[in-house]
Amino acid sequence: MSTIVMPPPEMHPRDLYQKSKLTHEQLSVHYGVARETVSRWISGKQNPRRSIKIQTVAIARELGIEL
């Protein structure tokens, strides 16, 4: 019998932005990217990589935010 491995959960940075009330600047520090990059993710002009979506879950847990 094989084991089923579930992929890590993913959330869009927009979800974290809306629930955390952090600024684009504060989020950029958490993600290690430029503020403009966070702005493009939030506005929908750019889609974040899958690794960023996975990182969003980790950041939310770190901040105690339920997504």
TrEMBL record:
InterPro entries: Cro/C1-type_HTH, Lambda_DNA-bd_dom_sf. Pfam families: HTH_3. Residues 15-49 form the HTH cro/C1-type domain. Transmembrane segments: none annotated. This is Helix-turn-helix domain-containing protein. It comes from Laspinema palackyanum D2a. The lineage of its organism: Bacteria, Bacillati, Cyanobacteriota, Cyanophyceae, Oscillatoriophycideae.
